[in-house]
Amino acid sequence: MTEVTEFACFLDSELDPRQFKVFAEVRDASMFLQEEPVAVLRRCCSSLEDGFGVIYNLMRSRGEVGPMLLYIIKPGSFDKVLQVAIENGAPASQYKPPKIRWSRNIVDLMEVSAVVTVCSGSLDG
């Protein structure tokens, strides 16, 4: 087992269809490089999508939103986000990483830090 230490999400509206991206930093990301943990992550994606509710599922069935992507990112990735925020004027003592990301540059930084990326798959599970 490993522990999620930080997470954030992003709606990528530059894609067609739009797509939710969830970034999770875990203590031991290397464990997800094996086939069995990836299957567990796919089930996690399905559970997350189930929690998005009826409107999301309707949008998915209409093709307005694509399948969710779950990124397991390297430990320390959110520390890099903090460094970028400080460089852009955020006070270090008051910085708290937002759970919803709006900055494309920060999302790009997190995507590059991915150890594994899992797509939720079809609505049928």
Plain-language structure description:
The chain is of the alpha+beta class and 125 residues long. Helix content is 36%, strand content 22%. It has one domain (4-119). A 4-stranded mixed sheet has the order 1-2-3-4, sandwiched between helices. A hairpin with a 6-residue loop joins strand 1 and strand 2 (19-26). The chain starts with a strand and ends in a 6-residue tail after the last strand.
Keywords:
single chain, 125 residues, alpha+beta, 4-stranded mixed β-sheet, 4 helices
Strand sequence of the main sheet, in spatial order? 1-2-3-4
Average predicted local confidence, pLDDT: 83
Alpha-beta classification: alpha+beta
Radius of gyration: 15 Å
Strand content: 15-25%
- State the order of secondary-structure elements, H for helix, E for strand: EEHHEHHE
E-strand count: 4
Tell me the number of structural domains: 1
